[in-house]
Amino acid sequence: MSFTSFVWEIGNISNKSSRKRHRLRRGQAHINPEASFSSSPGSPGSSTVQIEQRKWANLPPELLLDIIQRVEQREQCWPGRRDVVACASVCRSWREITKDIVKTPELCGFLTFPISLKQPGPRDTPIQCFIRRERATSTFRLYMGLSPALSGELSKLLLAAKRVRRATGTDFVISLVGDDFSRSSNKYVGKLRSNFLGTKFNIFDSQPSTDSTVCSSCELCRKTHPGKVAPRVTTSNYNTAKISYELNILRTRGPRRMQCIMNSIPVSAIEEGGTAPTPTAFTNCLDEHSSPLLDSAGRRPQVGSTSRSMQNVPLVLKNKAPRWHEQLQCWCLNFKGRVTVASVKNFQLVAAVEPSENVTITEQENVILQFGKIGKDIFTMDYCYPLSAFQAFAICLSSFDTKPVCE
């Protein structure tokens, strides 16, 4: 059997298992695929899929490790990278080994599992994406790739957002899929909320930036309410960033001026040897009694002892100042060919640091997020460490809201 046929067979096994699980009682969750079937050969739940999965699960760990490493190294981008996801869907042993092999985007530069969208991007080369705006439905879709013309139907949908108008502002609800924007869905990942004028925004994440805080919060909840039945798990929102656009009362010429305060990312993350918060899995242990990671002011609540991260100064991003081009009579920024249409929405974000902070000049000039227009409803988005795809997408969504007092 060739290596391509081997990977194809793995994908077929994963698909058979998924279809079998959907035929079971609705709402029942399983940790591993083989747990859905009875272990008795003569029981009604036994099937060929069960036998095949046990055959793959019983492979020697050394051979299994080598197989998954070959699959991971062979597929560098989507849609081929779905073979790596198929390996993680075979059974529990395959999933654990795949999770150990697949590195975070910061280290490998790839987006593999959904949790990769909440992890910081690579430090050296930015991840290039594009956003498609659909005016009729007020939706915005983030795709993996250079542009629709180059990617075509092979583009990988990463995130989708829907704009919801309110009396006091606007909400952008962000989801993993393009047809489900309910906050009660497990596809919900966060939202962006603006004020009435569209000059100030708050980014709310559906989970905190570190798993340890979640675990401690759940432990606190169990100690506070002993002997009680666990309440229904509800979706929580954590204020992880604030975006503000400078008012242009004098109507002076120039692009928009913006500032982003990343409450969930300390400024030490961009210092030499610094690290940014990196969640390892989507958490669902929070309930209505557990305290949030960040309050409405963007600060961590005190639970017992003072957390070390409370003492860190949050990272502040500012738009890179453009230069005035005399011949073209316009403001210009070097987007390195990724932006082709002049627009007030175009921007580049760099770190705004104090001279006392231990940040090199190179890091201060490094473009962390770049957003620009290339078509009527097509925009490019390139981001890198320490921002995640979710945070970068939310910041770019703030540029789509109407801002008559900033232009």
UniProtKB/TrEMBL annotation:
SUPFAM superfamilies in the cross-refs: F-box domain (SSF81383), Tubby C-terminal domain-like (SSF54518)
Regions of compositional bias (Basic residues) in chain numbering: 19-28
Location of the region described as Disordered in the Swiss-Prot/TrEMBL record: 19-51
First and last residue of the signal peptide: none
Entry-linked Gene3D superfamilies: 1.20.1280.50, Tubby Protein, Chain A (3.20.90.10)
Start and end residues of each Tubby C-terminal domain: 117-402
Pfam families (UniProt xref): F-box-like, Tub
A biological-process GO annotation: regulation of DNA-templated transcription
Biased composition (Low complexity): 36-47
Domain F-box: 56-100
Entry similarity comment: Belongs to the TUB family.
Protein name: Tubby-like F-box protein
Organism name: Gossypium barbadense
